[in-house]
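Purpose: get a first structural picture of the assembly so the mutagenesis plan has something to point at.
Setup: two entries, given in the order below. No constraints added.
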Amino acid sequence: DIQMTQSPSSLSASVGDRVTITCRASQNINIYLNWYQQKPGEAPKLLICAASSLQSGVPSRFSGSGSGTDFILTISSLQPEDFATYYCQHSYSNPRTFGQGTKVDIK
Amino acid sequence: QVQLQESGPGLVKPSQTLSLTCTVSGGSISSGTYYWSWIRQPAGKGLEWIGRIYTSGGTNYNPSLKSRVTISVDTSKNQFSLKLSSVTAADTAVYYCARGSYSSGYEAFDYWGQGTLVTVSS
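Result (structure tokens, whole complex):
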């Protein structure tokens, strides 16, 4: 199985801050990497697929980059509705696996 | 707008079989190049992919659960289902159904059900 490791596991930030979350795959996954946002009591929501392709309706303050084994999710200016847990997930092979999540909370 | 809704018992006894159904609305489960997955999340923990089915009937399962999992599809009802046998307390989780779709050859889970909590307890 491909292991996905996110860092940090949690972070505290203020509205307006630039936030970066890193995801590392245990082997080369090209750009088969997706990012999801999950709020408490809700299902995950797809933000970005194929490492950098923003889903329709997702604010442009979200962006993704990377290829191979190292990926980054960036929130350029954190908004109140962005406080949530973020997960990366690969779609390179079976089984699909997720990172352990990064919780973004209010400083 | 595609919607997915999980249904099934919220309480299952140890050693029994967990059975859940996902009903898809807003579109035919057979249309397009999609696959239909089950994903679970224990309380306070991360997400675990259980497996998926194509409407052709082909399946892929997580090797960690493969011996206990069966996913099936009923296109006439626009539903797909999960059966997980010999459950233990470790199978207690929120279970999500999700649609996998392709964009320029890359796959992602673009629609999710709201999730249903299944507790394994006697």
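Chain A has no helices and ten strands.
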